[in-house]
Amino acid sequence: MLRMPAYVQARKLAGGAISYYWVRPKWASPPAMRHDRMCPVVSTALGADPAAAIPRADALNAAFKEWRLGAGRTELVPGSVRWLFDWYRKSERYTTKAWKTRKGYKVAMDGVEAMAMKIGIFGDRQAGAIDAPAADKLYARARAKHGERQGSYMMQVCRLVWNQAMRPGYSKATGVKANPFSGMGIKSTSGTGNRAATRAEYDAYRATARAMGKQSMATAAAICFEGCQRVYDAFGFEDPDKKVRGVMWRDYRPGERISLIQSKTGNLVKIPLVDSIDGEAVVLYPDLEEELGRMVRREDGGLIGEAYDVDYMAKLHRRIRKKAGLPSDLRFTGFRHGGITEIGDAGEDDVRAVSGHKTLDITAIYNKASEAKGRRIALKRREHVALITAGDTVEGDENEP
Question: What keywords would UniProt list here (predicted)?
Fold first, then answer.
């Protein structure tokens, strides 16, 4: 019987053929860390040919062992891809970015390093010798292994690194003279993987959360959907860069206004909760105020809601979503997306007064086509056509042809 490398499984396919897979052990799955790194090696299909599967599995095992033991991390070969990534992470271009951005970049770099080649892994290749065809092949493999969104993001990070490495004054040290990741047709990832929640889904989610005794989750959903807050601001997740996060009781005046700080932009957004129409007070955000009214107000004016950590919040969200019978692609970030989209559907293109975005261009990803917008556009167009048609009427001789 053929002896395969560690972590390789043989599986029988529907037609009876055998295919091989390198399967990462569960204990190594994120957020597991070794030597300040999440495991860069993921479960990978090796194909049906044992002769081709074995060397690929050996390369994956070598990368997995290196992550587990931390072996060789201090012995970087100058000019290699791994060395170049380490060089970039020490630069001001990287260190001055927000913690969340740095984390995303590092995960992308680790994934690129660990990509298995015919011989060895991509991180061992000389960065300056990589050409456009090699970059295109890497992109195809990254999409196949990590999906379209993450694969595209990995290439975007590579493009940033190579752009910095080839600049005058740096290229002599890095050995990079050109950027093989430029002009490769990377698909934009903006907004992908995060669909907007509908108001019906939002209502069902809140009702289920309340029924399960998780009022904080219902209130956080309202803060995201009605107040268009980011998830980490709604829950006040701890920020390694020490940015102020969270919605505070001291900033909420019932029946008057609520003030929200967008930690990403630093913008302070003051949202009025009532308006006066023909002398009568109109509540602008009844669902948000109802959820806040169900909470016990802290006397110290601190954080609204429970100080959940990210993992526990994610688990609670899945439980509530399943209990409510909502689709599996409903992410908590979808509530903010849904709220901003709803504003756009109502006919308001500039959502910055609520969302806290710095520029109008960024909000364009929420301004999507819909049937409601199509009907509204058609009605306004007919009004315009009727107006210009009336203006074109010529008063002349009634017998004039």
Answer: DNA recombination
* CB-CB contact of 319 with 213 (8 Å): no
The pLDDT, as a whole number, for residue 156 is: 94
Residue 397, pLDDT above cutoff 80: no
Mean pLDDT of the chain: 81
The CATH number of the domain covering residues in 199-374: 1.10.443.10
The CA distance from 136 to 181, in Å, is: 8
Q: How far is CA 363 from CA 46, 98, 142, 349, in A?
A: 42, 20, 29, 8
Q: pLDDT digit string (tens) for 200-210?
A: 999 999 999 99
Question: How many Å apart are CA 11 and CA 147, to the nearest integer?
Answer: 22
How would you classify the pairing of strands 44-47 and 257-262? unpaired
The closest alpha carbon to 145, from 14, 34, 40, 12, belongs to 40
* Residue 104: count of CB within 10 angstroms of its CB: 15
